[in-house]
Design a protein that fits this description.
There is one protein chain. The radius of gyration is 17 Å and the shape is globular. The strands form 3 sheets. The protein has a 7-stranded mixed beta sheet with strand order 5-4-1-6-10-11-9, sandwiched between helices. The chain has a two-stranded antiparallel ribbon with strand order 2-3. It has a two-stranded antiparallel ribbon with strand order 7-8. It has helices spanning about 10-15, 20-30, 45-55, 65-85, 100-110, 125-135, 165-175, 190-195, 210-215, and strands at about 1-10, 15, 20, 40-45, 110-115, 140, 150, 160, 165, 200-205, 225. It is α/β, with parallel strands linked by helices. The protein has one domain (about 1-225): 3-Layer(aba) Sandwich (Carbamate kinase), CATH 3.40.1160. Helix 6 (about 125-135) runs parallel beside helix 8 (about 190-195).
Length: about 230
């Protein structure tokens, strides 16, 4: 049985009007069609709720590590909500909080949910670590935008990148990663470097559930694919 790791972006799960229940239900339906062939490890981000709480907390708290802890707590709340919609499947009963627990959960259940782990480490980086622990060579990143761009997508003439090397992703991430608590970017620098270290292919998709299905199957999908190339 294969192992598929998914980094479920907070922008997909937590929005200004609340939890995106519609998408999570579609995700649960999709995974039901795949659990006979694959196990899934899903790392859930913080999204709007994280930014809301951290921006407010910054008025009181000046310690970035504490702000990160707040963000981690919110990612785990989001993961708990997602997990509940998978309750009819073979899902690990708790939200995983460390890599040793992940090893155990991955052996015993078909679906495992987790949020953040440590201050300063994004859920994208956690998802890459999950790949390494589970022996998976593919991470599917589900976020608001399926593409990495050669510069900020708000800039004129920004180009979508279809297939790129790990080195190219590191270059782009180094320009966008502020390392501030609650910041939002498509894939952070640490995650990009870890993906290169582990030679992990990263497939980016948006909230189109059909594109996620294609990515799980290893078929052509809309979105950037990052993989080992001669340039690496």
């Amino acid at each position: 049985m294969g192992i598929v790791c998914i980094s479920l972006g907070g922008s997909i799960v937590s929005r200004k009007n609340g939890i995106n229940v519609s998408y999570i239900r579609k995700l649960a339906k999709l995974l039901r069609s795949h659990v006979d062939k694959n196990k899934f490890i899903i790392t859930v981000g913080g999204g709007y709720a994280t930014r809301l709480y951290i921006n407010s907390a910054k008025q009181i708290i000046k310690n970035d590590a504490v702000l990160d802890e707040i963000g981690i707590a919110i990612t785990r709340i989001n993961a708990l909500i997602v997990k509940d919609l998978f309750s009819d499947m073979d899902v690990y009963p708790n939200i995983v909080t460390d890599l040793n627990e992940l090893r155990m959960a991955n052996k015993s259940n078909n679906i495992v949910l987790m949020g953040g782990l440590l201050p300063g480490i994004s859920t994208d980086a956690v998802a890459i670590l999950a790949c390494e622990v589970a022996g998976s060579k593919v991470l599917i990143n589900v976020s608001k935008d399926a593409y990495i761009y050669d510069r900020s997508p708000s800039e004129k003439n920004a180009k979508k990148l279809e297939t790129i090397s790990h080195n190219r992703m590191i270059e782009v991430a180094s320009l966008r990663d502020t390392r501030e608590a609650g910041s939002n970017f498509v894939f952070d620098l640490m995650a990009a470097k870890l993906a290169k270290r582990g030679n992990i292919e990263v497939r980016f998709v948006n909230d189109d559930i059909l594109q996620l299905d294609m990515a799980i199957r290893g078929k052509k999908h809309s979105g950037t694919t990052v993989k080992r190339m001669d340039a690496n």
